[in-house]
Amino acid sequence: MLIITKSNLLKQKKRIKNLFFFGFVFSQLLIKAQVTFPINGAPSENHTIFAFTNAVIYLDYETILKNGILVIQNGKVLICAEKATIPEGATIIDLKGKYIYPSFIDLYSDYGMPVEVKPQIKLHLGPQITTNIKGAYGWNEAIKADVDAYKIFSHNTIKADEYKKIGFGAVLTHSIDGIVRGSGALVLLNSNKKENESVIAEKCAAFYSFNKGASKQDYPSSLTGAIALLRQTYYDAQWYANGGYNSEFNISLDAFNKLQALPKIFDAGDKFNAYRAANVAKEFKQSFIIKGSGNEYQRINDMADLNSKFILPVNFPEGFDIDDPYDADAIPLTDLKHWELAPTNLTYFQNFNIPFAITCAELKDKTKFLPNIRKAMQFGLTEKMVLKALTFYPAQFINANLMGTLKTGNFANFFISNKNIFDDDAQIIQHWIKGQANTYSDINFPDWRGKYEFITDSKNYIVTFSGDVNKPSAKIKIDTTSKNINYTFANNVLTFSFQLDSTKLIRASANYDSKTKQFDGTLQNNDGYWNKFTLKFISKTDSTIKPKPKVSDIKVGKIIYPFNAYGEPLSDEQSAFKEAWKKFKNRYSAILIKNATIWTNEQDSILKESDVYIVEGKIVRIAPNIDAPKLAFAKVIDAKDMHLTPGIIDEHSHIALTHGVNEGTQASSAEVRMGDVINPDDINIYRQLSGGVTCSQILHGSANPIGGQSILIKLRWGQNAEGLKYENADPFIKFALGENVKQSNWGDFNTTRFPQSRMGVEQVFIDYFTRAKEYNAEKIRYESSKAKNKMPFRKNIELDAIAEILNNKRFITCHSYVQSELNMLMHVADSFKIKINTFTHVLEGYKVADKIKAHGANASTFSDWWAYKNEVMDAIPYNASILTKMGINTAINSDDAEMGRRLNQEAGKIVKYGKLSEIQALKLVTINPAKMLHIDNKVGSIKVGKVADLVLWTDNPLSEYAKVDKTIIDGEIYFDRENDLKLQQYIASEKARIISKLVVEKQKGIKMQKYQPKQQRLYHCNTLEGVSEQETGER
Amino acid sequence: MKEFKNISLILLFCTSIIVVAQKKVMRIALVNATIHQGNGNVIENGLIVINQSKIELVQKKTSENTPSADTVIDLHNKHIYPAFINTNNILGLHDAEAVRATRDFYEVGTINPHVRTLIAYNADNAIIPTVKTNGILYTQVTPRGGLISGSSSVVALEAWNWEDAVLKADDGIHLNMPRLHYKHWSEDNLNTIAANKKYNDEIEELTKFFTDANFYYLQNNQSPEKNLRFEAMKPVFSGNANLYIHADKVKDILAAIQFIKKFEIKKTILVGGKESYKVTNELKKNNISVMLNRVNDLPDMDDNDVDICYKTPFLLQRDSVLFCLQLEGDMEAMQSRNLPFNAGHAVAYGLTKEQALSAITLNAAKILMLDSKIGSLEEGKLASLIVSDGDALDAKSNNIVLALIEGKFVKLTNKQNELNQKYLDKYGIK
After folding, report:
1. Quick one: which of A271, A439, A1018, B16 is 20 to 30 A from B271 by CA?
2. Within this chain, do residues B296 and B358 fall inside the same structural domain, yes or no?
3. Residues B119 and B233 grouped into a single domain
């Protein structure tokens, strides 16, 4: 063992010309390593200095030393420079022609965590309302703030090698389980060492997600519930820190608060979740580093607007097997386009200057990491950017100062590759972690590819070795035919065999001399004779590396907004502007609709042969024979023989939602917001447009008496979630009564959550209103108190919502069926001095129409649904007409994506059932729902000054024979039958284009996957996550 | 001889149908209406003479052909249609669908050709009267579930009991073609389709059953013991009953065609057929007609034409595939009353109104092998018809003022319009 003494060092000192390095070296090496572990036998530490010379060294992501020197000792970098004197005694490793890179850092990993956490599939054994974990923890199992990765971390050699072979030397590992996942630890992948030498920073970042992971607790069952849980946990933790700890000790909240000083990484898993996470962060003045999923390019402008840092995977989908045309036809456009565009994701982030780190998470087969990076680089991602995203940014994001570059004093974490790591056949030869080598191939492995003359006693042949430098393929030319040779090459010894002719088998062994590039050896025929032979180098084989295609030569399709069928690409000039995508529709400043039959919903009722002039989204004139505006940008629509009506408004809809419509695990879920889980890509938005719908109220389901907060949207297909929201609409909340809330049709296990009868339902409302009232009073008292040491106030987002109802700032839409419960809720409301804004479904409303009228509620019902469960056996299709005749503002709603797009026909049925006039009937789906949603001053009728939300029909709009020709929102045409045909052609041609690309890929032998068909889940009131429709009965 | 000249009299007449029916009217003449025969013909200002249970005469009314009848009903400005036929439906087999005790359309086990809907059909079911009032007077009572669900029967909707109701008992066996993919809930909640892992097993099970049943049939009662399942299959092999194969996706339909060819099934009906428009040639070549999935449905794929379900009837018509419309799916029994409006909706997408009418009348009768009796207003057929104030395929004008089944007047009140009246009276409104 070499002990470096002070005198040795002094000698060294004189030799080192660069004084700057000296000071550091001196201080480093004077200290003897000290360990806490008892040593069995004599200690065997070393302080060998290694010097790597002649390599191309990437000092950091942007500094390349073309012929650099790297000197390391004791796990740290001593010198890394273009020129430096090598310390005496150093082991010099000549790396001519090779490359050195600082090790990559992966910020998203569960390396070395105890078990892989799999989501628990819930067996239906009744609800689990609170935590089952024993101890002073918080109430929800998905909040695992107390988990510290460093405490449960242990090396896994196999996994570590997978990382090291693709360039990663350190990972930020954490337990991938729960909505709050605790802290992650930065660890080195020196898996042959004790963990004590690997953990670099024990609490390096905090981790979050919207996925409850292994928690078996019912709440949250939906994405909107997960968001609410995280928000409430933030508020609870604030309360706890401000003094709540005086009233209870809570491990989870205590740990949650301790995480706050750390960088926060949020596993979003989807482009829209990135936005949702950023919204939570904003509420609490935090910022999350977003771990993406690879589809962020589909809304890259939104990603840029988040001002977040990202961690991005490179999990590009495999191509699809398209041999069977019916199978190919079943692959949606989005999957085909994502296959084509996923490798451009990183390039978009680069071009939008969004800082990002790259992770190899999501790749089941880690060996695909570098090939995928190389693939991404074909689309314009630069080498500098990749290195920055693998070294500089990850280190910067988590403040890991000693990593990501090879500057003096940093960890000696680097790998050596045979060529530029981003070349197609580059390979990592050695990976050094903290100064310890891991060897993956022979560092002296020669490049012996070439054309050789095979000289034997009898005859000479030509042998070529070409292709992969590590395993070139070998061929021998015998007469005119070329044969493959099986061979092995190790330690400079080549053994091979081949069939010379039908009788003669040759087996041979030869030694390689790298200086002469010649093999000399002996061979044996199958007649048993031994002969000498030589393989004499003639020339290099042609380079097998195909020239990389130029970035500009690679053609991919355009991103469409939204990223779904019937989405549209931006025009070229729009793409140039960051904000342009929001206005990608054919936005005409003015539209003139001529000669239409106009159903105004105003006193004029139906105007024949009239014109409507729209300017900047508003109706400015209604009259016959308006002169065509002379402005070039005005669009003139000849609507002769067509009918123009206000846009259809669906008061009760569950379209455009993602991951759950119900958070029905508790009797009240007033804290959840449907506005958090809008899915702007939902095809049902477009389908509703094709049925003339312009506005939909998106409601929580009816699984519990107090549901979630509603969101009113305009169907601005293509825009993001914010763009869909109806501006400044009054907030609403869903309530529900009857069989769904008492879980009557949910199977035998759901019999324990309160309430299980209509009796209990009443008490739930009284209870929550009472508590909200008290809460509200307490809140006011707290806010007005000037006392210094006042007891902290715990903000409760559930009671906040209910208190808003009591303060007339939030309005109730109540799912309801039978007369007794309708009556009951009005009494409860009266006792708290509030009004039920809308009874929805309200199928026995006709039985208490006088009471509803007296209370002042609106009614939103089905036209003719009944008989699907016991509480609808007295439902009648005359309900809407009786309610209307009683003077109650009445609407027909859908609660169904299918019926939602022909609400005009449903209104037509009320002409049949109850003999409403056609004008009255149309109002059931236009101005009446507008009134109950408090938007009738803007939309719902055709009147000068109102917003131009209009539908042009080919026939009487109440008829089965009517089709929508155009749907206009804010004066923009969002559905156009002619354009619909063009979009169908676009879908067909894009699919055909990409499928032909796939054919070429398949012919190249690239692995393909069998397509797994998908169909989106449609939501109704009663849809529960994790439970199939059969188990819940109908609506 | 009575002559009703105006509508109020007819309405009066309708409310006293039972009295009339008891009188055993011998010969009724319906005059001056627009007759939609169901076979594509329209007769303006027509005349229909009904003798007992049958149609004796259908023609344009002229001054010469004033009929001799016990009752002449003037239906000026009204429309007469053949009774609408509701196929492939569980109507009559449940009341409140979510209540298990009322559900009688599903039996346990996978191969149940011997179970029969007919005897479970409740002629007093609460939903039926609400269906009749929209013009639907016949239904094919159809079982659900398993690979072979059982046999269906065709019944008239006005009857004392199922024996009285039946027009054709055990008209066919219903086979649910194994699906390559089926709907399935999954973690990501978007992918609700999963590959059917049991597909090959299911095909094998069906193949084995058909092989055995066919052998039994060919043995011609030589089998030492009677096998109830095989017995039930005999009419299918002999061609006396239909084999209804339920399949929607194109590959499942193609597999179904292979299957029936293998067993030389004589009369096959494709039920569902959501993607049948893609294989019209194969359907025609194999003489397969279609009971088409409901028109008012959503496309399966985001990429599909948003109107594809509305257009499919037109596409089948264009390619000369015989089809009728049906409503299997969510709340199908209650939805039966919307059958004419589904047909009407297809008119907006290419069918003519008379073709749409055929799709719920004559085409259905042909498929059920009942076209010698019902489905069109032609001489010699049963006098099962409806009279509407306006166009009966459009909800806003569908107002059935008169309906006859086999020459007998049908009651056109139901619990719903009675409740309507009760509450109008309570509130003192009209």
Report:
1. A1018
2. yes
3. yes
